Amino acid sequence: MQKVYTKIESIVGSVITVKASGVQNNTLALINTRFGTSYASVIKLDRDIVTLQVFSGTSGVSTGDEVRFTGVPMRVSYTPDLLGRIFTGSGTPRDNGPELKENLIPIGGPSVNPAKRIVAKRMIRTGIPMIDVFNTLVVSQKLPIFSVSGEPYNQLLARIAMQAEVDVIVLGGMGLKYDDYLYFKNTLEESGALSKTIMFVHTSSDPTVECTLVPDLSLAVAERFALDGKDVLVLLTDMTNFADSLKEVAITMEQVPSNRGYPGDLYSSLASRYEKAVDFEGSGSVTILAVTTMPADDVTHPVPDNTGYITEGQFYLKNGHIEPFGSLSRLKQNVNSSTRDDHRAIMDAMIKLYSQYKESLEKKSMGFSMSEWDNKLLKYGKLFEERLMDLSVNIPLEEALDTGWEILSECFEKNETALKTDLINKYWPKELKK
Amino acid sequence: MNNNGKVVKVNGNMVSVEFTDNVLKNEVGYIHIGDTKLKGEVIRINGNVADMQIFESTSGLAVGDAVSFTKELLSVELGPGLLGQIYDGLQNPLPRLAEEYGYFLTPGVYLNPIPDKSWDFTPTRKVGDTLKAGDAFGFVKEGLIEHRIMIPFTFLGEWRIESIKDKGSYNVRETVATVVNSNGDKKDLSMVFSHPVKRPVTAYKERLMPKDPMVTKIRIIDTFLPVAKGGTYCTPGPFGAGKTVLQHLTSRNADVDIVIIAACGERAGEVVEILKEFPELTDPRTGRSLMERTIIICNTSSMPVAAREASVYTAVTMAEYYREMGLNVLLLADSTSRWAQAMREMSGRLEEIPGEEAFPAYLESVIASFYERAGLVRLNDGKLGSVTIGGTVSPAGGNFDEPVTQATLKVVGAFHGLSRERSDARKYPAIHPLDSWSKYTGVIDKKRVEDARNILFKGNEVNQMMKVVGEEGVSIEDYIIYQKSELIDSVYLQQNSFDPVDAAVPVERQELLFSTLYDVLQNPLKKINEKNEARVFFNEIRQEFLDWNGSEWMSDKFNAHLAEIKAKSEEMRG
After folding, report:
1. Which residues are bridge partners to B147 per DSSP?
2. Helix ranges (DSSP H) in A204-286
3. For B304-341, what is each residue's pLDDT tens digit?
């Protein structure tokens, strides 16, 4: 269908209405404006009034501009040529590479049949001890990184992108500062990880509607790679910007807001994206790590709150490191029994001691006198933070576990760790004196 | 003859259709796009325009697309073969869908819910007998249960059997009896019939007061916050507090005949765990696979929203169906908040005036009428059957002060509130013992439970006081009460779900543990004069209790720990 309509009835926010017939819901249209051609998608039909959401915004759209309906849904090209490329939120190249037109696949496809899913059982190594040892990332897991503005969450994502042992990385940026975009690009380029990465980036100066498309584009591509047997890691930053864009569009559409102005379907909108995380029986997988900044550090804000109900745990990034408390990988017990026999024991023992360290620290700050045990804990806490918690530490899981034993042996007697005797006999460092 | 219409408006999953003939409210219609048919339900009629909620994605729909109405309300198929099945919210069998269509849920595909197979039918009535809706005229053996073949629940008045098949094997959809009513209407009946999901089944004599406890083998529930067979309860809690884990354990251990799990708008991963685990687990009551007594209705968060709304009704209608056979059925709905949100989304698209937090004004009455479908009933033949409903609630921000939690609390008989504090402290189950309540009678004498609860209350007060004045600021008597309350918490309220013995505690064992603990609680412990002694005593006795909880029923170790607890307690009596 290539009929051209030249009468735009209304223009409100990023939404326009056109009188037209035979138009299908959720299909694309092209608008020719004096500033160039933009895509728009059909979001509502009411008899002969068609409501469209214009990707590049409506600034400069004239009531006399041409609208041409294509009759096809929003699609993205799926080819191996995607690797190493960078696109905008509407799928056009952001680097200087050619536009990709072959093998177009629709975005936002149907959900995976639960009967075809399998229980997640494989670990993804990241080289970050706070993840590998304490909150293991599992293939097909969906995990948010709860953080606040100013924290190095994008640095963390970039490090995971460089180090994670996966076949393909899809990075979806929403409302990124231009500097952050350049940071991602340069870091991945320098480390050589760009060659296995595909980036869909919406920067904060780009049109709002494009922001809402980034997760769908990223996940549609990721899903195809997974069906072709690849393990794909999708990194999304920042989902709060995504939710805010949904809010903006919903309010323009005069939808009844539910909680703090967010649309009533926020949960479903987030869930339909996160639930794309999957381990396909007999094929590849999609794993999702998504930054969610908490406005005013409030976890009960609708975006982190709804996210928490959807995802399988969460990482809290606070004061420059992944918090041992509150952070949780719900799937870690599926994998950490089969890594090394001391993994669970070290994880539990070190966290318990670290929580005692926090208590001692509090006592110290209140001016109480420190016992010998308190001093041991203080030393332990410091070493723990330096050698394991620091985000710049990059060591494989086994080495991290050994480091754990070293820290314990430097600070404590064997029986003070509450670890099982057979594990202590096997792993307690022998040559080190205390 | 089908009544036809055409699409005039598309807004998300809400579609308005212009029609010419009559349409029913809640009638099912199909929208035709090429060869695919998308199922929808009429939810509002205005003039000659019907608003329908579509159970699939509406991408590709256009104004002018043809719609056919079916004259049927949204219904489920009922008959032998439901047990062990995994359905989506509209009763599509998911494993068979996966076999035929692969990884993804293809829109517009509807398969027969009840597998096409033969069953050994045994007639229990003869030609000339007069029956009413819900009366059985025969049965088949479905696993261990006697699955009654009944007159459909929507049949009005009395029906006389004109012919009935002899004992033998028949296909599930083959006619096994023909009945006729006084008007001369004749109906052929097979083992399968359908029932509209939003109409409660009322083919029974009377509703009774639920009184027998439904044992879950979770101590804090059975003893302190019991649920009755035929009762209702809700489990609200913030994310990560263990709502779903608690429901999974209940679905394994509850002493009921049938469990129906409605996974409504939650994570697919959790459903997968049930799907893969249950066939491997055995039902302690029957020794057979747990799957044989389970039906799973699974409409996870990424599946279409309108079908999520339907899924809880699909589940409760199946529960009522098995109740008509004189069975005890437990329906677990996880989570009713997602169901309420589905209503909210639809209400928004219908441009209704919103109530609190944009939920529709009818939220309360809809929740109430859903929970009211639970109940203990006396059937037409005098037998008893029950449907128990347990729903989780996922309140925004973990704050119970929101419309769904509040509307639910008004209608349920027990409230198991999960607390973030307890779950952070790794206290399992994280049900808050003081905030939660139950109106039912449990497995332990009420008076004694009340005494224990009082100690919990007082202990909590002492604890609050100690936070201000320090341990030295409270008397030894108060300190002992505090230690006693901590003892109840750690050895009775908390349960180790990873321990094979402690994970599921039968009533007999709860009784013995409670009375032993009760003796310690009643002991004045006069010999203890200072707090350090008290701390040592309670640490030791707690360790004994915990070891006792972990030892095999009536084993040597079991008896030794019990004797040690008694001796320790007596020693301090003074």
Report:
1. B140
2. 208-227, 239-252, 266-274
3. 888 898 999 999 999 999 999 999 999 999 989 999 99
The torsion of the CA quartet B34, B37, B42, B43, rounded to 10 degrees, works out to -100
Q: Which fold has domain A77-334?
A: Rossmann fold (3.40.50)
A296 touches chain B (CB under 8 A): no
Axis-axis angle for helices A153-163, A178-191 (nearest 10): 20
Cα separation, B562 vs B547, in Å, equals 10
Which of B328, B74, B372 shows the shortest CA–CA distance to B214? B328
A115·B97 Cβ contact <8 A: yes
Listed by start position, the domains of chain A span 4-73, 77-334, 343-432
Looking at B324-402, list the stretches that DSSP marks H as alpha helix, in order from N- to C-terminal side: 336-349, 363-371
| Residue B220 and residue B434 in contact, taking contact as beta carbons nearer than 8 Å | no
**Which of B59, B299, B335, B346 has the highest number of chain A CBs within 10 A, making it the mutation to test binding with A?**
B59
SS3 track for A342-355:
CHHHHHHHHHHHHH
φ, ψ dihedrals at B453, nearest 5°: -65, -35
Residue with tokens 């040529």: A81
At B351, which amino acid appears? E
Q: Quick check: helix, strand or coil at residue B322?
A: helix
Give the A:B interface size as CB pairs under 8 Å: 170
Say whether residue A275 is in contact with chain B using an 8 A CB cutoff.
Answer: yes
pLDDT tens digit sequence for A381-395:
999 999 999 988 999
DSSP secondary structure, B165-228, as one string: PPSEEEETTS--EEEEETT--EEEE-S-EEEETTS----SSEEE---SB---S-HIIIIIS--B
Q: Write the CB contacts of A262 (distance below 8 Å, at least 6 apart in sequence).
A: A243, A246, A247, A250, A302, A303
**For domain A4-73, which architecture applies?**
Beta Barrel (2.40)
Residue B485: is the preceding peptide bond cis (ω within 30°)? Answer: no
* Fold agreement (A4-73, A77-334): no
Encoded amino acid at A328, one letter: L
Test A117 with B272 for CB contact under 8 angstroms.
Answer: yes
Token pair for residue A179?
A: 């500097």
Whether pTM > 0.80 for this model: the answer is yes
